[in-house]
Amino acid sequence: MVEKKVLLIEDEEETVRNLKVLLELEGFIVDTALDLKTAKEKLSKYYYPLIVLDIILPDGEGLELLRYIEPSRSKVVVLTAFGTVERAVESLKRGAYDFLKKPVSVKALIKVLNKALGDLKSHQYEEDLKEVFSSIVGKSAFINDLKKQLPQIANQSKNVLIRGENGTGKSLVGEIIHKISPRKEFPFGKLVVRGKKNSNFEVDSLLFGSEIPGKEQVGLLESLAGGSLLLIGLEDLPLKTQEKLLDTIEKGYFTPLGSNRRINFNVRFISTTTKNIYEMAQKNLFNMNLLVKLNEIELEIPPLRERKEDIIPLLNYFIEKFSKERGLNKPILSEKLIDFLLNYDFPGNIIELKNIAERLVLLKSGKTVDITDLALQEAKKENSSIFNIQNWKEAKKLFEKEYLKRKLIEANGNVKKVAQMVNLDVSNIYRKIREYNLEDYLQNK
């Protein structure tokens, strides 16, 4: 955030006092320096978005300071007396933003400072976009369109629903929407509701808070006031919670569990889902009125198999990332491997590709990688032959192995998540992992 902070560099004390008071009345934070030495010291210690600089100072020429100031980070307005206009024009060539003649019109100065501040904010926003968009990797038409759409979506106050398969990057897109929105200075939070369809009290406590003795908790709708909440797995939001959330949105306030205290509501919802929630709503499995409120803007993230152009850029991005993090040399990708990956369906989408990149960095650092180095090849062959197996038990084992492997990929190797996804005990999942030698798919392996 660019502050309305000004360093006023001027040797006439009366002028400094008057300008300081008048600028502060306009909401500026004003610091002062009466000479070149003091100005240099302050510029070396503190950041000032705006600088008002007199050309002639007791211990030197003010324009000397321009060499220490980066024009993209700070805007300098030069003050010039009669007879020094040529020097002021020279200051523009050396990076100053504008100049004003003395005696200074406060109205004109405020106008220039506000314009400079606006330019700084625009530049800062563009820099923020570059930084945030560096995590959106790919060359597909979808990625190019997404980068154009996100600023427009972010700048609205409407709730957003992001649809797509597991592992397509829905949560990342949701977080980016907050980061480039007007709410970015306010808190951002996540609530995973996937798998909590029957956990009404838990979800209500997390969302609305609780003042029940012994179960006190500040809810996300209170702690994230002014910010955004990412609801992950919206399809599993308990039905009773849906009713309460709809009531909150419509009335503009909510009450924590066990309390009569009304709390004003000001949170933007960004939700993700892997399901067709409209179809669920038509079957009375989701509250249609709430869905309309949460789906004011809809985004769909296509699976990786439908945007093949993104596969290799993403793979290279993750390989670069993991190589730097672990201090290892990057593996070398063979042409055969690249062709294979471009024709692979990636059932686990970007999460699966990320896991592949991490394994390659760990196991093949600095070495050439071929198709035989990927477990995917074996999986592809096994999947194609499963219906040719005549023995029921063997076919069942093969299905279990491939099913569990895929779920581990989707859950990024998190066994607890897999257990929730497939409705089995964690101990059973670990037993199956050992039985089918799937330890390589575990988290942090």
Detailed description of the structure:
The chain has three domains: 5-126, Rossmann fold (3-Layer(aba) Sandwich); 138-302, P-loop containing nucleotide triphosphate hydrolases (Rossmann fold); 306-441, Helicase, Ruva Protein, domain 3, CATH 1.10.8. Helix content is 47%, strand content 14%. It has 18 helices and 16 strands. It has helices at 13-25, 36-45, 85-93, 106-133, 141-154, 170-179, 200-208, 220-223, 239-251, 277-282, 288-294, 311-326, 335-342, 349-363, 375-385, 392-410, 415-422, 426-435; strands spanning 5-9, 29-33, 50-54, 56-57, 60-61, 75-80, 98-101, 160-163, 188-192, 228-232, 253-254, 263-264, 268-273, 297-300, 332-333, 368-369. A five-stranded parallel beta sheet has the order 2-1-3-6-7, with helices on both faces. A five-stranded parallel beta sheet has the order 9-10-13-8-14, with helices on one face. Strand 6 (75-80), helix 3 and strand 7 form a beta-alpha-beta unit. 29% of the residues are buried.
